[in-house]
Every structure is written in C-alpha cells, then in structure tokens.
User: What shape does this take?
Amino acid sequence: MSVKTSDRMLHETVSRRAVVDSPDSQSRVRSAPRPGQDPYPTRLAEPLDMPWLNRREEVVKGRAEEGPLSQAQLDEFDRKGFLFEPNFISGEELDELRRELAALLERDDFRGRDFAITEPSGNEIRSLFAVHFLSERLGQLARDARLVGRARQILGGEPYVHQSRINYKPGFEGKGFNWHSDFETWHAEDGMPAMHAVSASIVLTDNHHFNGPLMLIPGSHRLFVPCLGETPDDNHRQSLKQQEIGVPSREALSTLVRRHGIEAPTGAAGGLLLFDCNVLHGSNANMSPDPRSNVFFVYNRRDNRCVAPFAASRRRPGFLAHEPGESWSPAG
Ligand code: 6CS
Ligand code: FE
Assistant: This one.
C-alpha cells in the first residue's frame, strides 16, 4: 500500500517535470518561467500553478529633472500605472483636433479598409488605426515634444510610435472593451519583448460616467496575468471588435479588483491619460447619446522593438505594429 502510494507520487513528480521541461510548446509551461524561457508566457493551453507572475522591468525609468513630469507625477504613475492630466490641451488646439477627428470619420475611402474597425454589429467606425500616418495633423501631435518628452521620461530612452489609433465610441452604438493588458497582446501577437511602452490617450469629448470611460485597475501593472487559450489565426479581426483571447480569468480579475479597486478618470475634453503598457483596463458600452472619442499613441522604447510574436503563428498587419523609423501608407 505504502509502496503504491509512493509509486504514484513518483510518477506524478516525473510527469509534472516532463511538462515543465517540454521544449516544444510554450503553451505547456506550468510553473514560473526559468532563465532562458519567455518571462511572460501567455495564451496557454492550461493555467500556470500561480495566477500571475511579477513584472521584471521598472515602471518609471527616467528622472524628474529631465522634465516635463514632476517627481510627484512620476511617483503617481509608478504607483498606479497611470496618470491623468486634465486640460492638457484646450481652446483652438482642441477644436482643431476635434475637427480632424470628424474629418477622418467622414473619409469614404477608409470605409471597408482593414485599418478601419467597425462595431461588432453595425457599420459605425469603432477604431481607426495608424492615424499618425493617415493625418498630417495627428502625425504632428505624435511628434509633439509635450508627449514625446513625457514618454521619454517614463521609458528612460528614445521612444517611437508602435501603434496609433482613434477610438470613436459613438453614442448608443459604441460597445465596450473587455479587461486586458495591452502588453499581453503586443507580446503575444506583435513580439514586443519587454514592458518598455506607454500609451498617451487624449480625450477629445467630455468623458463622463455614462459614455463608457476607460476603467483601470491601479497597481495591476506590476503583475503579468498569463491568459488561457491559443491565439487563433487572424485573431485581430475578432479581438479589435470584441476581445475574447488575451482576457485574464475572472478569478484573477476578482482578486485584483478586490485588492486595488477600479478607477475611471473622467473630465472635460482635452485631458491626457498616460498609462503603462501592462495596466489592466477596459470599458463599458456607451449608452449615452454623446460619443466618447479619444486619440492615442503608443510609445515604445527603441531598444525594445518587436521581434517574432511570442504566442502567435504570424505577425499582425503593419497598421497595428509599426517599426522605428517606418513610414506606413494605406496603399500598403
Ligand atoms: O490589439 C491591440 O493592439 C489593441 N487592442 C486593445 C483592445 N487595446 C490595445 C491595442 O490598441
Ligand atoms: Fe487597450
């Protein structure tokens, strides 16, 4: 009897080690990654032994003296994983950007193109990607020293635009975004190696409780939550309308929300939200008559440029993941 028991235990130990050691499939990793393995395994066939892994990279890598962010602002970003600056732009500059957003939405030649994402059911434009290439004005904004300076300060190195987009979220029609970490997708599907990226989102409509503002889990940027489910081919066609793969488990989300709560920065048009690439965020549908639109640029550190995807069979199309120094055009 005792022999049988120990036999079974031995067998279990061996087979578990075999799973951990298996070199052929990332998706069979079961316990914390070891040196030489991907530090951020995700899109797994089976859950790990632990609900999350610790982040390896520092969050803020530059210094206050370099400006424009103060030490208090950098500390807040470090602690929460985001920083909201109300009235970042205003007056004529804000009006001009709003006109640019409306003009891009009117462009018939963008309709039906892969970089113009429509709502899951309906023809309203949900997101437009690569907008810093589609619009001269937004290109200028992406290179604006106020934004690039903030990104450089947080990342501690020279940034380039990895991705840009406008989210329109039209009144009544705009659907939400499930909880996710952007880094999880960029690592798995675009091959972003490490957490050296920050998003700068400028809200161009008033952001209130009823038009589906962004919600964030403060502090979640310090943990990487591996997600279950292999990446299907062309996953972006589904995920940009409604993300199902790359969404943390409800158990992990419940624990994190109980620990850290949820915050939704609201306020007048013109506010800037800077958020870390790995902070968990999502948003509700827009049930109000007013749109909730924002433009956002993702700055990645140049020495963190993307390599081959870590958990997908092919790279995603160019409009979702740019290279440093690249120039993209809708013609392809
Ligand atoms: O797939 C992506 O790259 C994008 N998807 C979401 C839901 N957020 C970040 C990113 O723009
Ligand atoms: Fe996101």
